[in-house]
Amino acid sequence: MLIRAARADEAEILSELAIRSKAYWGYDAAFMAACADELTLAPSQVETVRATVAERDGRVLGFGTLEGEPPEGALGMLFVDPDAIGGGVGRALYEHIVSGARELGFTRLTIDADPNAEPFYLAMGAVRIGATPSGSIPGRVLPLLEVALSDDAALPRSVEEAIAAERAGRAAPLPFLLGPPPPAGRRDRAELPQPVVGGPVHRRWAALPYS
Known about the structure:
The protein is α+β, with helices and mostly antiparallel strands. Helix content is 32%, strand content 23%.
């Protein structure tokens, strides 16, 4: 299997593949029609979104995109032709895109995941950090996932994100949330920022051995 950059003249092939791959999950015709624009790549977009294809014997089996500019971007699309699902194509594309993103200086990638694809991304190391509205279906909410590409990227940016991380099974780096520890000998914590009382972050914070 060859992983390579997509060509602009493959935009139609990739768009058709994306639609077939999405339909694999059993969505009806009305749903697919509503998603059509979001699943379509124009020739002018292929390079902009850094589209990458996996092919074997000249046939495109799947593709993915890396969108945005460092340090934070998105794994925007990742689709595999239905008859190639389960053959390692998605994994190969994911690993190639993540590796390339790291080399380009990205530290975080987000993924607006189809609920059916979420288990794959979690198995690949992504974590769920929340939810995000669908770009095609009003009222539909999708899992919002994150891939941390550096140690610093693993730090939560808010108490809410830290709680979401703990619920997903990822430990929250508490010093980031609480700031520096108090001076030596100080035991009064009242002046420290207060996490949500009773929440998972609060329980971890309360056990910190300040001295």
